[in-house]
Amino acid sequence: MLSHKPQANHHYHFVTGKLAAASVRSLVENCAREHNFSYSLQVLPITVAALITPKWLLRHLDLPTQATHLVVPGYCEVGLDELHESVGIPVVVGPKDCREIPQLFGEQRRDPDLSNHSIEIIAEINHVPRKSIREVVMIAEKLIADGADRIDLGCDPSEPCAEIASYVNAVHALGVNVSIDSFDPTEVESAVGAGANLVLSVNASNRELASRWGCEVVVIPDSLDNLESFDESIDYLRGRGVAVRLDSILEPIGSGLMSSLSRYSAVRAKYPELPMMMGIGNVTELTDVDSAGINLLLLAICEELKIGSVLTTEVINWARSSVRECDVARRLVHHSLANQIPPKRLSEDLVMLRDGKLLEHPVELFEGLSATIKDHNYRLYAQDKKIHVVSSGVWLSGRDPFYLFEKLLQQEISSNVDAGHAFYLGYEMAKASIALTLGKQYEQDRALNWGLLTVEEDLHRIQRTSRAREKNENGSDS
User: Fold this and answer.
1) Which of 6, 270, 317, 417 gives 20 to 30 Å between its CA and that of 476?
2) In contact, 245 and 152? CB cutoff 8 Å
């Protein structure tokens, strides 16, 4: 739905179904008063506006002569060219939810430009030698598709990998930078020779070898209670022309998280010109919480401190989408700092557990619907901590889907609940129950919004009913 800028000489003709008529009339009246346009509203002989098709609409449309625009519901998207040619005025596609009509006439809202970012995502594949090359390549392909800029091959400390060069070659062939995570000099030399251009990690124990690798290295302290060793390794490597990236080590919660964040800040102040990296897995992997919020906060810290890369993993199940989360987070924090605004109302991709806002119907709507609709299809709503089931002469509500279904079977229309209806109602009630539990918006026949993890659903009931109507054009339309 695009915002539409109304003018005083515009007359908008809205079409809707019986179900939403009262709500649409109230909303449009307010919009017309605020934005100074005239309007008319046609309530079509159909209960649900989502079932309207352009072809069906043309048979029922009563367009006033003064109309300058025709506003159709948001689901009425296919066949608009024919509709436009027939009516001869612009056809405006409104929202799929009538409660969002005011947004149609709001100021032109530009989506924020989130294409820019400053942080490189290094995605680690752990224990690479325990996997086949084919497995590693498949994992790398997925990580790259999710937003990784570099694949880090994590070796097994217990045993050197004689085939590490083959792993590097296979991943490098995907067109991505490769880093090697090992303290074993033989593994590192083989990996670098095969194309790895970053080594994790270097301290006093192996810094003498770094000058012959010919690539950038990540410098870490020998121990966190001896930061002089960190400075010594930095000076040693820089003095020999080795490109360095500094990582002062992020500690898990319970082991000095705040001290380690302060350490990053101090290192940045001491070495303002040197690139830095933060390994964020120590917090995302070692904290019993969904990773998205942690990733956003840590990448915001990195953005503020100009830490140009993060090393992340997806081992624990609650962090399995960390690379995608980091890709969204780095864009949000970059936009936020560049424009000096909070990262709010920019993207809902990381609003995964709950929704940003809930749109609720007036409770009086349900009783009114049950008294006015004539068909025996079921309308489901989830609000006020209850699931509401509405049909002709029926309004049931409750928190327990099993209780609702039992009550539904006691109604006179229970013969309508065949196996297909039972499956459909069970599926939709499960979604409604989840929405109530988490505080999410439930819309019948639409997927729950899980942010970047959302998988859109087919509009099963709406599409099935629309096809039936197209095949039976001479039948009842109400």
Assistant:
1) 417
2) no
Is residue 74 within 8 Å of residue 24, measured between CB atoms? no
Per-residue pLDDT, averaged over 59-82, amounts to 87
Cβ atoms within 10 Å of 356's Cβ, excluding its own: 11
Q: Which residues pair with 70 in a beta bridge?
A: 13, 91
Q: What is the CATH number of domain 120-339?
A: 3.20.20.20
Using CA atoms, how far apart are residues 312 and 316, in angstroms rounded to an integer? 12
Domain spans, the chain: 11-104, 120-339, 364-471
Look up residue 315 and give its two tokens.
Answer: 């081992």
Distance of alpha carbon 88 from its chain centroid, rounded? 39
Question: Left if phi > 0, otherwise alpha if psi is -120 to 50, otherwise beta: which for 127?
Answer: left
**CATH number of this structure's domain 11-104, picked from the four choices 2.60.40, 2.40.50, 3.40.50, 3.40.630:** 3.40.50
Q: What sign does the CA torsion over 236, 242, 245, 250 have? A: negative
Does 426 or 23 have the greater pLDDT score?
426
Q: Which residue has the tokens 């915002």?
A: 3
CA distances from 49 to 53, 314, 411, 465 (A): 9, 44, 26, 12
Distance of CA 245 to the CA centre of its chain: 31
What mean pLDDT, rounded, does the chain reach? 89
Global pTM reads 0.77
- Answer yes or no: are the C-beta atoms of 140 and 171 closer than 8 Å: yes
Distances in Å between the Cα of 350 and the Cα atoms of 222, 269, 354 are 36, 31, 10
- 204-226 pLDDT tens trace: 999 999 999 999 999 999 998 88
pLDDT (tens digit per residue) in 236-251? 999 999 999 999 999 9
Residue pointed to by tokens 């109604």 = 411
Are the beta carbons of 123 and 151 closer than 8 angstroms?
yes
Rg of the chain's alpha carbons, rounded to an integer?
30
More confident residue, 452 or 101: 452
Residues facing residue 470 across a β-bridge: none
